[in-house]
Amino acid sequence: MLRYLLPLGIFFVLAGFLYAGLSLNPRDIGSTRLDKPAPAFTLPKLSDSSQTVSHQDFMGKVSLLNVWASWCETCRYEHRLLMYMAKKGYNIYGLAYKDTVADAKNVLVRAGNPYIANAFDENGHVGMDWGVTGTPETFIIDKQGIVRYKHTGQLTVELWEKEIKPLIQQLEKS
User: Residue 24 above 60 pLDDT?
Assistant: First the structure.
């Protein structure tokens, strides 16, 4: 009897793991940066390499850091939403990730520039410090420079309305 029940028990345990795994979001890989200070960095500005962007730029205001690249198709789809957010006065910084200056600048000339400043991370080293796994990725940093949110993948209007905008409003009050 045990010889029939043991395989059946193992089957139900494995089926339970499969069921739990299917309910997970494969894009949500979490972040080791949440509730920790933004990684220290200083990078040249995309618009003028004689100037820099650093983690200090996030201090004193709630900021959004958008990791993007000219070669990223998904980044193009979220660009209109970033333009809308910038027009509404939100503080958006960009991290041009593993790109070329010419290609990245070309995207901003064609599609508009929603960023207060764009850091140019040619080799992706700063992106790795942030835990970037690909583009696009978006982080929200509070007034004290603490990372409070990470989203991997395209920003959507629904995500903006339900998660990001309320969080930004809450962080601005504190």
Answer: no
**CATH number, span 28-173:** 3.40.30.10
Angle at 123 between CA 82 and CA 69, to 5 degrees: 25
Q: Is the dihedral of CA 32, 173, 166, 113 positive or negative?
A: negative
Instruction: Parse the chain into domains and list their residue ranges.
Output: 28-173
User: Tokens 């070329």 appear where?
Assistant: 100
Q: What is the pLDDT of residues 62-87, one digit of tens each?
A: 999 999 999 999 999 999 999 999 99
Give yes or no for a cis peptide into 136 (omega within 30° of 0): yes
- Predicted structure pTM score: 0.82
